[in-house]
Amino acid sequence: MPFHCVKQKRCKLALYSIKNQDIRNINMAKKKVKEEQGVSENQGVATAMTEAGAENAEVRKLAPAPEENSIAYKLLSLYHLQCIYSEIDKIRIERGELPNEVRNLEDDIEGKRTRISKFQEELNEMKEREEIENAKIQESKALISRYEEQQNNVRNNREYESLSKEIEYQTVEIQNSEKKISKVQAAAEIKTEEIKALESEMKEKSEILSQKKSELDGLIAEHEEKEAELLGKADVLKAKIEPRLLTAFERIRKNARNGLAIVQISRDACGGCFSMIPPQRQLDIRLHKKIIVCEACGRIFIDEQLVKEDLERAAAAAEN
After folding, report:
1. Same domain, yes or no: 165 and 217
2. pLDDT tens across 194-236, in order?
């Protein structure tokens, strides 16, 4: 191979090596720049998140209590009242069905006592009717005796037949009165048996009632002090709530199955009936411009953030 061709080939190889080296250097430089940019971006994001967190913490820390008579203040008052009522409900649930059982037994005993009193009145009326019929029998017997004496002194057959008819009539009256007395006595016996049965049942019920009342009194004594304290707090809160709003709250609570009249939104749904709440309505709830109720169950809505801020203020006050 000629010398100039070898020299030309070596020059091409050298240029190719330099070009590849330059490309590698450029790629490494680009990679380094990207890594530096990524680190700075991550640091910036972390710094921004830290600053945002600090700012939010400061906002939460400095969140002022709602002004009195504002919608937020009214909602929190109702929420606090609901919390107290929920505690009272827990105490009463622990008693179970015992109060209802005692009430039902008392009603049952009172009903039996009323029936016994009514049956006694009917028995007295039966005795009066029996006495009236006995008096009629005695009167009819007296008339028969007198008519028989008069028959001995009659002057003709016509008078004798007339007295005989009177005696026959009075005899029929006596028979009718005796039949009525028999019916009255049979009915009186039935009523007497019913009264005895009712008295026996009432005695058994009274014994059970005494036992149930004893158990209930024990449970009431166990939670009486705490329940009285909670009821006192509820009365204080109710005095601060306007009557119209309090009446609506108590009506909703009475009709609600779980006793909750004011609820938060959980997973975009009502915390009471679990009906879905539209986003615009959720925004209105967070703004606290007016009191909003669930269109499905009628419960009052309260914003979750408002409750959290109130709890944080209460915790801070407790620490201080």
Report:
1. yes
2. 999 999 999 999 999 998 888 888 877 777 788 888 888 999 9
Tell me the pLDDT tens digit for each residue of 34-82.
Answer: 555 544 444 443 444 344 344 444 434 445 667 777 888 888 999 999 9
Residue 110 vs residues 105, 115, 117, 206: alpha-carbon distances, Å: 8, 9, 11, 10
- CB of 272 closer than 8 Å to CB of 311: no
Residue 46's domain spans which residues? 1-62
Check if the beta carbon of residue 191 is closer than 8 Å to that of residue 84.
Answer: no
Query: Which DSSP category does 273 fall into?
Result: T
User: Phi then psi for 260, rounded to 5 degrees?
Assistant: -95, 120
Compute the distance between CA of residue 223 and CA of residue 221 in angstroms, rounded to an integer: 6
Q: Give pTM, 2 decimals.
A: 0.47
Per the DSSP assignment, residues forming a β-bridge with 266 are 269
Cα-to-chain-centroid distance, residue 144: 75
State how far Cα 136 lies from the chain centre.
64
- The verdict on 100 and 221 lying in the same domain is yes
Question: For position 273, which CATH number holds?
Answer: 1.10.287.1490
Sequence-separated (6 or more) residues with CB below 8 Å from residue 253: 82, 85, 259, 260, 261
